[in-house]
Amino acid sequence: MDKVTSADGTAIAYERQGSGPRLVLVAGALCDRNALRPLADELAGDFDVVTYDRRGRGDSGDSTTYTVEREVDDIGALLTALGGTAAVYGHSSGAGLVAVAAGAGLPFTQVVLHEPPYGPDDADTEDEGAEVLRLIEAGRGREAVELFLMLAGMPREAALETAAAPGVVDLAHTLAYDFAVMDHASPGGRIPLDLLARIKQSTLVVAGTASPPFMVDAAHRIAKELPAATLAELPDQDHVAAVEVLAPVLREFLLSRR
User: Fold this and answer.
1) Which of 120, 236, 237, 253 would be 241's cystine partner, CB 3.0–4.6 Å?
2) What are the sequence ranges of the domains in the chain?
3) CA neighbours within 13 Å on the CB side: how many for 139?
4) What would the pLDDT profile of 108-139 be if each residue is shown by its tens digit?
5) Does domain 2-120+174-256 have CATH number 3.30.2320.30?
6) CB atoms within 10 A of CB 240
7) Does the predicted TM-score (pTM) go above 0.85?
Protein backbone atom coordinates (compact mmCIF):
# COMPACT_ATOMS: atom_id res chain seq x y z
CA MET A 1 0.00 0.00 0.00
CA ASP A 2 1.15 3.53 -0.83
CA LYS A 3 -0.29 6.94 -0.05
CA VAL A 4 -0.54 10.21 -1.92
CA THR A 5 -1.41 13.59 -0.41
CA SER A 6 -4.42 15.36 -1.88
CA ALA A 7 -4.66 19.13 -2.35
CA ASP A 8 -6.20 19.71 1.10
CA GLY A 9 -3.58 17.57 2.85
CA THR A 10 -5.69 14.40 3.11
CA ALA A 11 -3.75 11.14 2.71
CA ILE A 12 -5.24 8.82 0.08
CA ALA A 13 -4.23 5.15 0.24
CA TYR A 14 -3.81 3.10 -2.92
CA GLU A 15 -2.48 -0.19 -4.24
CA ARG A 16 -0.99 -0.96 -7.61
CA GLN A 17 -0.58 -4.29 -9.39
CA GLY A 18 0.11 -5.69 -12.84
CA SER A 19 1.69 -4.06 -15.87
CA GLY A 20 0.49 -2.38 -19.04
CA PRO A 21 -1.71 0.67 -19.61
CA ARG A 22 -2.69 2.42 -16.36
CA LEU A 23 -6.23 1.85 -15.09
CA VAL A 24 -7.74 3.38 -11.94
CA LEU A 25 -10.75 1.63 -10.36
CA VAL A 26 -13.19 3.79 -8.36
CA ALA A 27 -15.54 2.00 -5.95
CA GLY A 28 -19.09 2.90 -5.05
CA ALA A 29 -21.03 3.34 -1.82
CA LEU A 30 -20.05 1.41 1.31
CA CYS A 31 -16.91 0.08 -0.39
CA ASP A 32 -13.20 0.52 0.15
CA ARG A 33 -10.48 -0.56 -2.26
CA ASN A 34 -10.86 -4.22 -1.27
CA ALA A 35 -14.26 -4.38 -2.96
CA LEU A 36 -12.62 -4.03 -6.38
CA ARG A 37 -9.66 -6.29 -5.68
CA PRO A 38 -11.15 -9.33 -7.52
CA LEU A 39 -11.60 -7.18 -10.62
CA ALA A 40 -8.09 -5.77 -10.23
CA ASP A 41 -6.69 -9.28 -9.92
CA GLU A 42 -8.47 -10.31 -13.10
CA LEU A 43 -7.21 -7.31 -15.09
CA ALA A 44 -3.65 -7.18 -13.74
CA GLY A 45 -2.36 -9.41 -16.54
CA ASP A 46 -3.10 -6.66 -19.07
CA PHE A 47 -3.09 -3.42 -17.08
CA ASP A 48 -1.25 -1.49 -14.42
CA VAL A 49 -4.29 -1.50 -12.12
CA VAL A 50 -4.74 0.92 -9.25
CA THR A 51 -7.36 0.59 -6.51
CA TYR A 52 -7.70 3.24 -3.83
CA ASP A 53 -9.68 4.13 -0.75
CA ARG A 54 -11.93 7.09 -1.34
CA ARG A 55 -11.61 9.63 1.47
CA GLY A 56 -13.19 8.58 4.73
CA ARG A 57 -12.77 4.89 3.89
CA GLY A 58 -10.21 2.21 4.65
CA ASP A 59 -6.69 3.56 5.08
CA SER A 60 -7.39 6.98 3.59
CA GLY A 61 -7.86 10.07 5.70
CA ASP A 62 -10.77 12.48 5.74
CA SER A 63 -11.40 16.19 6.06
CA THR A 64 -13.61 18.02 8.48
CA THR A 65 -15.70 19.43 5.63
CA TYR A 66 -16.57 17.24 2.67
CA THR A 67 -17.00 18.53 -0.87
CA VAL A 68 -17.24 16.65 -4.15
CA GLU A 69 -14.46 18.85 -5.48
CA ARG A 70 -12.12 17.44 -2.84
CA GLU A 71 -12.86 13.92 -4.03
CA VAL A 72 -12.02 15.04 -7.56
CA ASP A 73 -8.77 16.49 -6.20
CA ASP A 74 -8.02 13.08 -4.67
CA ILE A 75 -8.19 11.43 -8.09
CA GLY A 76 -6.11 14.24 -9.57
CA ALA A 77 -3.39 13.72 -6.95
CA LEU A 78 -3.47 9.99 -7.66
CA LEU A 79 -3.06 10.58 -11.40
CA THR A 80 -0.09 12.84 -10.77
CA ALA A 81 1.55 10.19 -8.60
CA LEU A 82 0.97 7.57 -11.30
CA GLY A 83 2.52 9.62 -14.08
CA GLY A 84 -0.17 12.01 -15.25
CA THR A 85 -2.85 10.01 -17.07
CA ALA A 86 -4.81 6.78 -16.80
CA ALA A 87 -7.97 5.11 -17.98
CA VAL A 88 -10.64 5.05 -15.27
CA TYR A 89 -13.47 2.70 -14.30
CA GLY A 90 -16.15 3.75 -11.84
CA HIS A 91 -18.88 1.59 -10.34
CA SER A 92 -22.19 2.93 -9.03
CA SER A 93 -21.62 6.21 -7.16
CA GLY A 94 -17.96 5.74 -8.09
CA ALA A 95 -19.12 6.09 -11.70
CA GLY A 96 -20.91 9.28 -10.68
CA LEU A 97 -17.64 10.56 -9.22
CA VAL A 98 -15.75 9.58 -12.38
CA ALA A 99 -18.30 11.51 -14.45
CA VAL A 100 -17.74 14.62 -12.32
CA ALA A 101 -13.96 14.22 -12.55
CA ALA A 102 -14.01 13.69 -16.32
CA GLY A 103 -16.35 16.65 -16.77
CA ALA A 104 -13.95 18.75 -14.69
CA GLY A 105 -11.17 17.98 -17.15
CA LEU A 106 -9.03 15.39 -15.38
CA PRO A 107 -6.69 13.78 -17.93
CA PHE A 108 -8.31 10.38 -18.33
CA THR A 109 -7.43 8.48 -21.47
CA GLN A 110 -10.68 6.48 -21.45
CA VAL A 111 -13.72 6.39 -19.20
CA VAL A 112 -15.94 3.51 -18.05
CA LEU A 113 -19.20 4.30 -16.23
CA HIS A 114 -20.77 1.20 -14.67
CA GLU A 115 -24.35 1.93 -13.64
CA PRO A 116 -24.12 5.39 -12.08
CA PRO A 117 -27.38 5.38 -10.10
CA TYR A 118 -29.04 8.46 -11.52
CA GLY A 119 -32.81 8.59 -11.25
CA PRO A 120 -35.38 9.58 -13.88
CA ASP A 121 -36.22 13.25 -14.31
CA ASP A 122 -39.59 12.85 -12.62
CA ALA A 123 -38.23 10.97 -9.58
CA ASP A 124 -38.51 12.58 -6.17
CA THR A 125 -35.87 10.98 -3.96
CA GLU A 126 -34.89 13.97 -1.86
CA ASP A 127 -37.06 13.00 1.11
CA GLU A 128 -35.76 9.43 1.05
CA GLY A 129 -32.15 10.59 0.91
CA ALA A 130 -32.80 13.07 3.70
CA GLU A 131 -34.02 10.23 5.92
CA VAL A 132 -30.77 8.30 5.34
CA LEU A 133 -28.77 11.41 6.24
CA ARG A 134 -30.91 11.99 9.34
CA LEU A 135 -30.20 8.46 10.56
CA ILE A 136 -26.47 8.99 10.02
CA GLU A 137 -26.51 12.24 11.97
CA ALA A 138 -28.42 10.49 14.78
CA GLY A 139 -25.70 7.85 15.05
CA ARG A 140 -27.97 5.13 13.68
CA GLY A 141 -25.55 3.98 11.02
CA ARG A 142 -26.86 0.46 10.62
CA GLU A 143 -30.39 1.67 10.00
CA ALA A 144 -29.06 4.24 7.54
CA VAL A 145 -27.25 1.52 5.61
CA GLU A 146 -30.31 -0.73 5.58
CA LEU A 147 -32.55 2.04 4.28
CA PHE A 148 -30.02 3.13 1.67
CA LEU A 149 -29.65 -0.39 0.31
CA MET A 150 -33.39 -0.89 0.07
CA LEU A 151 -33.78 2.45 -1.72
CA ALA A 152 -31.15 1.22 -4.18
CA GLY A 153 -33.31 -1.78 -5.00
CA MET A 154 -31.91 -4.45 -2.70
CA PRO A 155 -34.49 -6.80 -1.12
CA ARG A 156 -35.04 -6.18 2.59
CA GLU A 157 -33.50 -9.42 3.84
CA ALA A 158 -30.38 -8.93 1.72
CA ALA A 159 -30.13 -5.32 2.92
CA LEU A 160 -30.29 -6.38 6.56
CA GLU A 161 -27.65 -9.05 5.97
CA THR A 162 -25.31 -6.65 4.15
CA ALA A 163 -25.66 -3.99 6.82
CA ALA A 164 -24.70 -6.54 9.47
CA ALA A 165 -21.50 -7.57 7.67
CA PRO A 166 -18.23 -6.62 9.43
CA GLY A 167 -17.01 -3.13 8.64
CA VAL A 168 -20.03 -1.96 6.66
CA VAL A 169 -21.51 0.27 9.37
CA ASP A 170 -18.08 1.89 9.78
CA LEU A 171 -18.59 3.35 6.30
CA ALA A 172 -22.13 4.60 6.92
CA HIS A 173 -21.02 8.22 7.28
CA THR A 174 -19.64 8.18 3.72
CA LEU A 175 -23.14 7.68 2.32
CA ALA A 176 -23.47 11.44 2.74
CA TYR A 177 -20.53 11.78 0.35
CA ASP A 178 -22.19 9.52 -2.20
CA PHE A 179 -25.41 11.51 -2.06
CA ALA A 180 -23.39 14.68 -2.66
CA VAL A 181 -21.68 13.10 -5.66
CA MET A 182 -24.92 11.95 -7.25
CA ASP A 183 -26.61 15.31 -6.61
CA HIS A 184 -23.63 17.25 -8.00
CA ALA A 185 -24.62 19.41 -10.99
CA SER A 186 -28.12 17.91 -10.94
CA PRO A 187 -30.07 18.23 -7.67
CA GLY A 188 -32.28 15.27 -6.87
CA GLY A 189 -29.91 12.73 -8.39
CA ARG A 190 -31.20 13.20 -11.93
CA ILE A 191 -28.94 12.68 -14.95
CA PRO A 192 -26.62 15.73 -15.19
CA LEU A 193 -26.85 16.37 -18.92
CA ASP A 194 -24.66 19.50 -18.92
CA LEU A 195 -21.93 17.65 -17.02
CA LEU A 196 -22.03 14.63 -19.32
CA ALA A 197 -21.72 16.87 -22.37
CA ARG A 198 -18.26 17.89 -21.14
CA ILE A 199 -16.91 14.31 -21.21
CA LYS A 200 -15.02 14.05 -24.49
CA GLN A 201 -13.07 10.82 -23.91
CA SER A 202 -14.06 7.54 -25.48
CA THR A 203 -16.52 6.17 -22.92
CA LEU A 204 -18.03 2.78 -22.17
CA VAL A 205 -21.34 2.73 -20.30
CA VAL A 206 -22.02 -0.65 -18.63
CA ALA A 207 -25.31 -2.05 -17.34
CA GLY A 208 -26.46 -5.50 -16.25
CA THR A 209 -29.77 -6.64 -17.69
CA ALA A 210 -30.87 -7.89 -14.24
CA SER A 211 -30.08 -4.62 -12.47
CA PRO A 212 -32.83 -2.36 -11.09
CA PRO A 213 -34.74 -0.88 -14.07
CA PHE A 214 -33.91 2.71 -13.15
CA MET A 215 -30.20 1.93 -13.39
CA VAL A 216 -30.57 0.21 -16.76
CA ASP A 217 -32.67 3.09 -18.07
CA ALA A 218 -30.08 5.60 -16.85
CA ALA A 219 -27.28 3.71 -18.59
CA HIS A 220 -29.14 3.74 -21.90
CA ARG A 221 -29.85 7.44 -21.64
CA ILE A 222 -26.29 8.30 -20.61
CA ALA A 223 -24.89 6.38 -23.58
CA LYS A 224 -27.11 8.44 -25.90
CA GLU A 225 -26.13 11.74 -24.29
CA LEU A 226 -22.36 11.29 -24.16
CA PRO A 227 -20.48 12.58 -27.21
CA ALA A 228 -18.31 9.46 -27.61
CA ALA A 229 -20.03 6.58 -25.84
CA THR A 230 -20.64 2.88 -26.33
CA LEU A 231 -23.19 0.88 -24.33
CA ALA A 232 -22.38 -2.63 -23.12
CA GLU A 233 -25.11 -4.75 -21.52
CA LEU A 234 -24.11 -7.69 -19.35
CA PRO A 235 -26.66 -10.50 -19.76
CA ASP A 236 -28.27 -11.74 -16.52
CA GLN A 237 -25.98 -9.58 -14.36
CA ASP A 238 -27.20 -7.30 -11.59
CA HIS A 239 -25.59 -4.21 -10.07
CA VAL A 240 -22.60 -6.19 -8.81
CA ALA A 241 -21.55 -8.07 -11.93
CA ALA A 242 -19.51 -11.26 -11.86
CA VAL A 243 -15.85 -10.49 -12.48
CA GLU A 244 -15.57 -13.19 -15.14
CA VAL A 245 -18.36 -11.46 -17.10
CA LEU A 246 -17.28 -7.87 -16.55
CA ALA A 247 -13.51 -8.14 -17.04
CA PRO A 248 -13.55 -9.31 -20.69
CA VAL A 249 -15.86 -6.41 -21.62
CA LEU A 250 -13.54 -3.89 -19.97
CA ARG A 251 -10.46 -5.50 -21.49
CA GLU A 252 -11.86 -5.39 -25.00
CA PHE A 253 -12.92 -1.75 -24.76
CA LEU A 254 -9.78 -0.45 -23.05
CA LEU A 255 -7.34 -2.25 -25.32
CA SER A 256 -9.16 -1.58 -28.58
CA ARG A 257 -9.81 2.14 -28.00
CA ARG A 258 -6.29 3.21 -27.01
Assistant:
1) 237
2) 2-120+174-256, 126-173
3) 0
4) 999 999 999 998 876 555 567 889 999 999 99
5) no
6) 16
7) yes
